[in-house]
Design a protein that fits this description.
The protein is an alpha/beta fold and 514 residues long. It has 19 helices and 13 strands.
Length: 514
């Protein structure tokens, strides 16, 4: 069989965008994320290729038409973003209409040429196969090399299982609700112009401990959540494992997904529950027994969103994803109070709710907004819309109030912990350098978070005003389960996005307040 008679370049060009996106984000993207988009591409590609082959009656030409279509399809997004802000004589040239006409013209011209040409294209087939194979090979080599170099073995601590069934039944249920990007009342009022006191007062009247000034230990989700759920600073873990690549996020993802808090609470006879957040490891956590709100959420993934956004589907990608995103968040609010109907065991429920963090999908009354994009990154222009942010926060307040009311209306009131992983980033604007050299005001805004805790049966408050999230569960477990988990010194760290290069900023935040 001649080499030019073997045709595989369309398949390789098809999976190239998926592997390329993964390669650029593999420090924090689980490899499982690439499976679904590759399957979808192949399921569309193969039948289309067969259909063209039947129509054109030339396998090589139909293959080139497929490859041309794939290249144009996935090149559209990057080219659109490159020209989006360009104007000529006051006219915005970065419009989908203009770009679509150009791309359609290229596709029609290229397809017409391929169909009508009488030239033998066997050699071009060989070259295309070779080029695509080299590109994919180099990419796979990079991916495999990165994973071998950064394959850190993380030991997951095991706990002795409690065996006294009657005692277990007396333990309170625990609901840990983490609202992503929810700021403390000070920065919310000073920066966004919204007074949140009514919401806080209502929680306080219901018996919640409202920490007056709460600050997260880290300024980024991929560090703050694993730190809380492992009752330990990520700095210490990175040093213990001698991590050399300060941008590798695989360790926080591993210990966030399979974490100490959930493994301990399971040993005490609890059923652990989590919800599909649409973000990172909290989409599908290994430590949980029951996973909710993930059914049929095929596109509830940042990776998939980015892939579609960088394709010719860009003009409609918001409509593709916004309903799924909204339904996912609403599902968590709906299912949280119903978990107890599923089991007689005490439950530990962890809900990482990706709101009021951008994108700002909801209006103040829960209406779905008309969005230009659903990019979750804080620094984009639309995501710096303070009014849209406040309206989404108001809606989140309403839903949290409903959840709390239902939970507290039960016969055996649970422990309820409501926190945020970090504050807002409005002062950072969309200037990337601000994340490298932030002002003190920026650092304080980003660290300003919330900490609301309800303990049942009029229990004595065991938490202090100086607590940071890393000590939430050590204090809780030591009190309720008579453990001796270490209470750490409360510290606050800052690093530019995606890095372990952490700076202790505790004095910047705490001293001005004291």
């Amino acid at each position: 069989m001649k080499l030019n008679s073997i045709i595989f370049h369309p398949i390789l060009f098809g999976i190239f965008p998926v592997l390329s996106l993964f390669e650029n984000n593999m420090s924090f993207t689980p490899i499982m994320e690439i499976i679904l988009p590759i399957i979808i591409i192949i399921l569309v590609l193969i039948p289309t290729w067969i259909f063209l082959k039947i129509i054109i009656k030339d396998n090589k030409k139909s293959a080139f038409i497929i490859s041309l279509s794939l290249i144009l399809f996935f090149a559209y997004g990057p080219i659109f973003f490159a020209i989006d802000d360009i104007t000529i004589n006051g006219e915005d040239v970065g419009k989908h209409t203009y770009l679509m006409i150009i791309f359609l013209g290229i596709w029609v011209g290229g397809t017409t040429f391929l169909i009508k040409t009488k030239k033998e294209i066997g050699n071009i087939t060989t070259i295309s196969n070779f080029v695509s194979l080299i590109i994919i090979g180099v990419m796979l080599f990079s991916i495999v090399g990165y994973n071998l170099e950064n394959n850190y073995s993380v030991k997951i601590e095991e706990f002795e299982t409690r065996g006294i069934e009657n005692e277990i039944k007396e333990f309170p249920d625990i609901y840990y609700i983490l609202l992503d990007g929810y700021p403390g009342k000070t920065s919310l009022k000073n920066i966004s112009g919204y007074d949140n006191q009514e919401f806080l007062t209502n929680l306080e009247k219901q018996g919640f401990f409202i920490q007056e000034k709460s600050y997260t230990n880290y300024h980024h989700t991929f560090l703050s959540i694993p730190s809380i759920l492992n009752m330990k600073y990520l700095n210490d873990i990175a040093n213990e494992l001698n991590v050399s690549n300060l941008s590798d996020q695989s360790i926080p993802y591993k210990i966030g997904s399979n974490n100490k808090v959930m493994n301990f609470i399971k040993s005490q006879g609890y059923l652990t529950v989590s919800f599909d957040s649409g973000w990172g490891f909290t989409r599908d956590m290994k430590s949980v027994d029951l996973k909710l709100c993930g059914d049929n959420k095929i596109f509830n993934s940042e990776f998939m969103i980015t892939l579609v956004k960088n394709s010719m589907l860009n003009p409609i990608y918001v409509k593709v994803f916004e309903t799924d995103k909204a339904e996912s968040i609403l599902c968590v609010f709906e299912e949280l109070p119903k978990i107890k109907e599923r089991t007689d065991q005490p439950i530990f429920a962890f809900a990482h709710i990706f709101s009021p963090h951008p994108p700002y999908i909801f209006g103040a009354n829960g209406e779905i907004r008309n969005l230009e994009n659903i990019d979750p990154h804080l620094e984009t222009t639309e995501n710096l819309d303070k009014e849209a942010f406040v309206n989404q926060l108001i809606f989140v307040n309403k839903k949290i109030t409903q959840v709390v009311n239902e939970l507290l209306n039960s016969e055996n009131q649970p422990i309820i912990i409501i926190q945020s992983d970090h504050g807002t980033a409005f002062l950072f604007t969309d200037y990337e350098q601000n994340w490298v050299t932030p002002t003190n005001e920026m650092i304080i805004e980003r660290a300003d978070s919330i900490n609301f805790i309800f303990l049942p049966k009029n229990a004595i408050n065991i938490f202090s005003e100086s607590i940071t999230p890393v000590n939430t569960f050590p204090i809780l477990f030591n009190h309720y389960f008579k453990t001796d988990f270490e209470i750490l010194e409360d510290k606050i760290y800052f690093a530019k996005d995606g890095s372990y290069d952490l700076k202790d900023v505790t004095n910047i935040i705490v001293e001005p307040i004291n």
